[in-house]
Each structure stands twice: as structure tokens, then as C-alpha cells.
Amino acid sequence: MTASTVSTYPFEPTPPWTTVNPRPLLPQFCTHCGIEELPLLPSPRNELFNDKYVVSTHILPASCPRLTPNIPLPVVPNFSPNAAERQRDIQQLFAEITERQVRFVRGELGGERIKKPLWNCVNRYVKRVQDERKGLTLFFAHANGFPKEIWETTLRYLLSSHTASLIDEVWSWEAVQHGDAALINESDLSVDWRDNARDIAHFLLYYLPEDASSKVLPTHLHLLPETVSESRETKGFSSRSLVAVGHSFGGYCSIIAAVNFPALFSSIILVDPAIINDHCGSSQKLDGLVLSALRRRERWPSREEALRLFKASPFFGAWHPDTLQLYVTYGLCKDSQGGVKLKMSALQEALVFADRTGSPEAWELLEKVDERIELRWIVPGKPEDKGFMGEQATRVRVWRRPANSSNVVIHSAGHLIAQESPEELAQEISTFLEKKTEVAKITKRILASTTAVRVYAFSLVMESTDRGDDWRIFEV
């Protein structure tokens, strides 16, 4: 990319703000939670991704119990074909959803937390042949409304570049309401953003294999020994260096997981994350997204017709064509009427957007992210779409935790960077990983040199002591 296509925001201090009193994550996990039958994968994959990597799809239990109570979901009416009546019905459903969310935050919904088994799906992209050196493990977390495969255009650019030599393995996450996971969990869902953060931590602690090998993994990932999980919580991975990449909702979840389990992360790349101070008007923004989700069309006669209509839409028309094709291939499934439908229902997308508390909580908690974890912000600079809540809000939030942080603005994209500018995103990820690896090499050489000097100095001291010289032990 040329200098004109990217830029950075200089440091900007955080203005005075009022705490929202972030809620605890409640990271207690039950690793069995009444599992009686293992589900089948709706869209299994085990195939070549490119000439160096293989992709496969896997399932694991979500964290349990959930933070949300076991109560019925709002009922979606049969919307009237009359435009005015349909709008009235949507407004009534919107009011029910928002009231439900307010009551949940206040603790007024009652009911026992959901203990029914839920499932997450993950795609694994692993080298066909691993070399001797320890490379990086990347973990991708999607935005609301998208399947785990939405990253694959970015991954094709990234894993076909010279930077691929640094990457042993990639895991692409799917939250319980999204993609294939939504089809498995369809009747048992409710929403709290913190639950997806808990699910991510649950995977990293209990199910991510010890090392990145080329061996085939089972569809249902195996639970790790308790000693391994306990060690990871305090000491991190013994054989991995994990870099998380989170977009929007996925960026929020990555930060919350890192605040509570910092040892698991070496770096986090935040792609315009849904992390905004409530004083910037995030509640009103999310309300608009709830309404937009409820108005979504959910069914089409065929994938071809869906793709044709998407291309004609200003929203989808701005996407990279390969990413749009991925959405049609993996975000839709066959329905009972012979056509296709969204894997994630409009109601579930709306329920995720209706969580007004997660975003400002994460904004406040950003300053508590361990400074050892490097943060790289990738934010949009398209004139008509400069971030989740606009340019000024972004200028502040990218410096909420100033130490060990940096940012880059991609001027070709709006909020949906992964969908609109996947090649530019891959280039920025590549640049970051190369710098990270080079810094690690230099640090290792310095430490090795320092150790050698210390040993040599100590040997001189011991020799002088044996001779009776008045030498003093010194630090190098």
C-alpha cells in the first residue's frame, strides 16, 4: 500500500469520563454441563485451503452455565405485507427486545442461568508440513452477523504471502448464534456479549491443542487435562505464541478475554472493535442496528438470486467480491421451502446488537489490559464511515491504553474492513507480524548476549576472588 492509503492517529488523551461499573466476567466453567449427545457439523470441511495449508471444521462445548437466564426468546410475528403494518410490528418487537435487555442488566428477568449444552464451531487452517521452528498461532473472531468463513479472503492473501512462513496455525472462531453454530444451537439461544468472551477463553484454556502439528484433529475437539488448563491460566501456552484478531463484536470479546486471562495472549489486533464510551452515543447507534437487523430479508429462492440482490445493494455492493461470495456460500443454508435462508436469524442478530452494556464496559477496561500484550488498532478512514462511532471517538479509544499500542487507518474501508478491504487488512496484519517477529528475534539476541556477558563477568570475579584481588561483582 502507498503512504496515501494508510495513516495513523497521534496520541490523544482520554477526556474526563464516568464509570459504568463493569460487571465481572464470572469465568467459572463447567466442562460437562449435561452433555448427552454430540451434534453433527452442518457444513463439515477437510480440504486444501491453498498449497501450504489445510482447512478443517471442529466443534467444542461452549462455556456453561451461561450468564443469561433460561427464558423464552421474543416471538417474531408473521410480518404483514403492508409496509405501515410491518413497520409497526417491527417497532413493537424492537421495544420488547430493548425492554428485555434493560431488565436483564437490572437483574429483573429472573430464572436460572442457561445450563443446556451449547456449541461453538471453529475452522482450523494448519500447515500441511510443519517446520522445526515455533511459529505463530492466529485466532480470528468475527463481527456480529457473519460466519467464521468471512475471514477467508483476508486469509488467502495472508497465507499466500511470505509472512505465511511465520504462521503455524490459524483458528477462526464462530460464536454460538452465528453460522454453523447457530444451526446447532437454534432452539436454546440467548445473548450476553460476555458469554462469547467466556467461550473464547474456554476454548483457549480447555480445548486448543498443546502445539500446532500437522496431524488430523477429531471433529469434536478433546478436553485437555486439567493440569494443562490450570497452567495456561497463569503461565500461558507452553508451545504457542497467540495473536488474536478481533473485528467489531469479536474485538470486544478478545479484549474482555484478555483482561481476565492475560497470560493467553501475546498480541491483539483490533479491527475497528465495538468498544465505545457510552457518552459517545453508542446506545443510540446500537438501537439503529437492532432495527436494521429486524428489517433484514432472511430468505431467497436460491443462492444465485441472493448474490444478485446483494450485489445491487449499497451495503453489500461495497464488499470485495470474494468476501461476498463467501457470505453467500457459508452464511446461507437450504431451507424447508426449497430456497435458502440466513444461518443466523434476523432476531439473533438483533439480540446481539441489543446488548448496550458490553461496549462501554470494554472501553473502560481497555486501560487494564496487561501492557505486555501488544495492541495494534486497524481502523477505517473512508470519508463517509470513519469508525464505529466516528473519527473523534476512534482518535481517543486507540490510545485508551497507550503503552505498547499503535494504530493504522485504512482509508479504503468503512467499519466492515474485513469485508470491504481484505487485501489491505491482510497487508497490515502481515506487516505487524513481521515486525513482531523481528523484535522478538532482536530481543532474544540481546538477552543471549547479556547472559554471555554476565557469565563472563562472573567468571572474572571468581578468578579475581581466588587471587585475592579486590574486585566487586557488578550487574551488566
UniProtKB/TrEMBL annotation:
AB hydrolase-1 domain segment(s): 138-427
Superkingdom of origin: Eukaryota
InterPro entries: AB_hydrolase_1 (IPR000073), AB_hydrolase_fold (IPR029058)
UniProt keyword tRNA-binding present: no
One function term, GO molecular function aspect: hydrolase activity
Gene3D superfamilies linked to this entry: alpha/beta hydrolase
Keywords: Hydrolase
Protein name in UniProt: Alpha/Beta hydrolase protein
Biological source species: Suillus plorans
Pfam families (alphabetical): Abhydrolase_6
